[in-house]
What does this fold into?
Amino acid sequence: MTRLLLCLVLGLSLLATSCRDQADEAPAAADAVPEPEPAAAVDDEAVEARYRCDGGNRVDLVHGGSSARVSMSDGRVVSLGVITGSTPRTWSDVGLRFVVDDGYAALSQDDTGRTLRCEPAGE
It folds into this structure.
């Protein structure tokens, strides 16, 4: 009986030590996860063209014009992909569409039909 009790105590001791070692390693693993890029880094991308739209919205053409980054007035940022070969040039995704033609630019929401007028930002 004493031998069984000794084995049980020794086993529990090893188990507790093992769990403590794993708990000590967990924060190190969490520290290894890279921090997300700060929002300011988004503005540092090479912008091919910038448009200011009604309601405080902004559209930046980035990645050589293959992507349109929409910065909405409520703080959300959405990336729209170019529709290759479209005339006029069009970027679309997630129910949003951005169109640029000679002297015309507009940001529209597909499900509501709401369209915002946009103008090139002279920066």
